Amino acid sequence: MDIIKSVFDTAEKFMGDPKHVLIDKSMLMNLAHAMEEKGITKFPNELNMEEVNLEDEVKLELLASSINYCYWYGKSDVRPNNASSSLMYELLGQTYANCPRMLFNEKNVDRIFTFNFAKSLSVNRFPLIEERVKHLMETAFVFDSVVGDIIEEGGKDAKFIVNLIVESLPGFASDIFLKRASLFCMQLNRKFGWYKDTINELPIPADYQVPKMLEFYGGIIYSEKLSRLIMDGELIPKGSLMECEIRAATIIACRTISNWIGWTSQQIDSWLWLRRKECDRPFHLTITTDY
């Protein structure tokens, strides 16, 4: 089975007869021209390969990607202790700093490290904490095999890595649009320059911010009902037709832009995501472990 193709096929099926989200190709073309005019926006986290412990960095990013989802309780401004992706990475770094470096590769220390990280998330009242702990611990139990295979593969084939983590980690596989699996590869691409020739085969990570920006630029259009729910801060149920059409339209629209201007999905994702604060519109709210 071609897992990546199945994501695009699923997105196409949702957009075959959409009820809540439309793609405006004329406005999407305007956006594509604007992206070309302003140029590629580089993500500011590239690492010097000579200054990092590669195995540890991949482990840390795999852990982060396994739980990089939903940081609020119903409303995006209701966040006990200001839970966020930035805080999650900060806590991960603090836990790593307190880990005996020479022991980090041993299985029991991997698991102790992961358990200590999970405790810090619990203390900070992160949403969906039970799911987060489950996803973290299943990741820790396959560190040796998965991370070893990722490093041995050498940053060549992003599709191979997505298949690997989907086969090994049900927490990543549960999302029909494979957002976190794609994002994991894109993070490694941003940090190490890996998968340059294959990163564009992956779907854009369809989450909250990228569709918000596509709608802001007019590339996708929400129905009156969906727009009202988003503006009122109402929850869009996970797996609902509305939610799936938002994510499917995001994937198809960004693939269309890629075909037009030749940018990779990672470059398009970075361009849109890094401009998210230029738009004061709210994004849709969905309580989910998918994004």
Nutshell version of this structure?
Helices cover 57% and strands 2% of the residues. The chain is an all-alpha fold.
Account of the protein in words:
This protein has helices at residues 3-14, 25-38, 54-66, 85-97, 107-123, 129-140, 143-153, 158-168, 170-173, 179-192, 209-216, 224-231, 241-261, 265-273, and strands at 21-23, 220-222. With 291 residues, the chain is mainly α. It folds into 2 domains: 3-44 and 201-278, no CATH class; 49-200. A two-stranded antiparallel sheet has the order 1-2. Helix 1 (3-14) crosses helix 13. The longest helix has 21 residues, at 241-261. The model has no long low-confidence stretch (mean pLDDT 93).
Tell me the β content: under 5%
Task: Provide the residue-averaged pLDDT.
Answer: 93
Instruction: Evaluate the radius of gyration.
Output: 19 Å
User: What is the global morphology?
Assistant: globular
Please give the order of strands in the largest beta sheet: 1-2
Provide a count of the helices.
Answer: 14
Termini Cα gap: 24 Å
Overall number of domains: 2
Q: Structural class of the helices, strands and pairings?
A: mainly alpha
The main pleated sheet reads as: 2 strands, antiparallel
Fraction of residues in helix: 55-70%
Number of strands: 2
Query: Unreliable runs, pLDDT <50, ≥5 residues?
Result: none
Order of helices and strands: HEHHHHHHHHHHEHHH
Set down the secondary structure blueprint.
Blueprint: H1 3-14, E1 21-23, H2 25-38, H3 54-66, H4 85-97, H5 107-123, H6 129-140, H7 143-153, H8 158-168, H9 170-173, H10 179-192, H11 209-216, E2 220-222, H12 224-231, H13 241-261, H14 265-273
Antiparallel strand pairs: 1-2
